[in-house]
Amino acid sequence: MNASVYLETFGCQMNVADSERANVRLQAAGYELSSSAEAADVIIFNTCSVRERAAHKVFTRIGEVRRQRIGREPIVGVMGCVAQLEGGSIFDASPSVSVVAGTRATDRLPELISRALKGEGRVIDLEERAGGEVWDVPATARTSKYVAFVPIIEGCNKFCTYCIVPYSRGREKSREASDIIAEINELRRHGYREIHLIGQNVNSYRPKTDSGLEGIKGATPFCRLLRAVAATGMERLKFTTSFPRDFHPDILAAIDEHENLCEWIHLPVQSGSDRVLRAMRRGHTASDYLKRIDAIRRARRNISVTSDIIVGFPGETAADFRETLKLVEEVGYDGLYIFKYSERPDTPAASLLDDVTREEKSARFMELETTQRNFQKKIYERYVGRELRVLVEGASSKSPSDKTGHSTCHKVVNFPGDGSMLGQVVNVRITVAKQNSLYGEVISAP
Ligand code: SF4
Question: Does the beta carbon of 158 lie inside 6 Å of ligand 1?
Fold first, then answer.
């Protein structure tokens, strides 16, 4: 009988995409995929190390699973960012782990598990993929049947001082456009309606060859890619994450030209203080950032903007924090992810004195959250009475008789609906604005 593998994913969309890729390789190698940690022969955790809490979570989960499985010890593996960074020390920290597979070893996971099943203790692989990247995931192996994440670039060269990604995922590697287009065409044939082009910094997309981009105009390779994927006819295309310094206005021109490029941009600012931005080594000032926002506001379409902010970066004073509040008020974000600074070992910021107290970080977090909540309420209320095109993705977690999905401006929209709507794009008239979602009624379905 073939061994069964349960794979649990933490972290970002990139990790979700890696897990999909790992599942494909596992099935091709003859493993059965299990949906339960209780029954599987092998349990793999695909980990995230971007925040301290995320990294700790995996060790807590390993402990939980072990307690459930006393007397039936599974093979336990750790893959992804924590594996890449911590390497062999994971075996000492958590002796039940027998496989450690780094961010570049996803394709070799089946072979690593097989060695562990044969009794080899402490199997580890942190190397680059031999023979180049293998990115593709068949449509049939995706987590969602309607929305797919398609990686276009992996790794990051920016080295923001607080960030672990350039170390855990390595330097930027872009995927050939012809590959990306072929994957999107395949997803379209399988009925997918929405694609997210993903990468830590999609704006610095730079493939080795022009394959797939021949004859396509654009100020940067990413702008050309946007026009090329729009031409596939895929119904809805979104992309994340954008980096302010590399955000070229031609991206907005492409969005204006192609209705299927959705009107949503995630543009992390991290701080509103130039002093802190310099210490973070972001390579932009608050006013550079606001110029980008101004260009977004001047676009033909009404584009939603979301962002990330870190509060309590080392040396951040009360005055610096006021600058952040001011910037948030000026921009008026549709959504904001706020994080309290936590030191990531071996990053340049880790050598700085983490001098903002825990209480102060919490107080700034709450103040910023309240500010954002007030602004967001006003933004969401503007949608009441309007119609949004929503891709129906599943049942609402709060009310089983309701369905849920996202609009093209990436708002969560809930509404009464039935199973026949799943995977369809429906027009919803918004009746209620909630804190983080909209509620409405379907006025036309296909
Ligand atoms: S751009 Fe900065 S924050 Fe984003 S992944 Fe790269 S180093 Fe990290």
Answer: yes
Range of the domain at 81: 4-125
How many domains is the chain built from?
3
Asked whether residue 332 falls in the same domain as residue 357, the answer is yes
Terminal-residue alpha carbon distance, the chain: 45
The string of pLDDT tens digits covering residues 190-230 is 999 999 999 999 999 999 999 999 999 999 999 999 999 99
Grade residue 403 by pLDDT with cuts at 50, 70 and 90: very high
CA 14 – CA 4 distance, rounded (Å): 24
- Give a yes or no: residue 133 inside a domain: no
Q: Please say whether the beta carbons of 14 and 200 come within 8 A.
A: yes
The model's pLDDT over 13-49, given as tens digits with 9 standing for 90+, comes to 888 888 988 998 999 899 999 988 888 999 999 998 8
For residues 286 and 331, state if they share a domain.
yes
Give the nearest ligand 1 atom to 164 CA.
8
Verify that 63 and 166 share a domain, yes or no: no
Same structural domain, 272 and 401: no
pTM of the model: 0.90
Note whether 197 and 180 are within 8 A (CB). Answer: yes
Would you put residue 270 in left (φ > 0), alpha (ψ -120 to 50) or beta?
A: left
Question: Contact at 8 Å (CB) between 334 and 379?
Answer: yes
Same domain, 213 and 227: yes
- Site to substitute for ligand 1 among 201, 270, 307, most atoms within 8 A of C-beta: 201
Query: Residue for token digits 């990790």?
Result: 15
- Cα(242) to ligand 1 centroid in Å equals 10
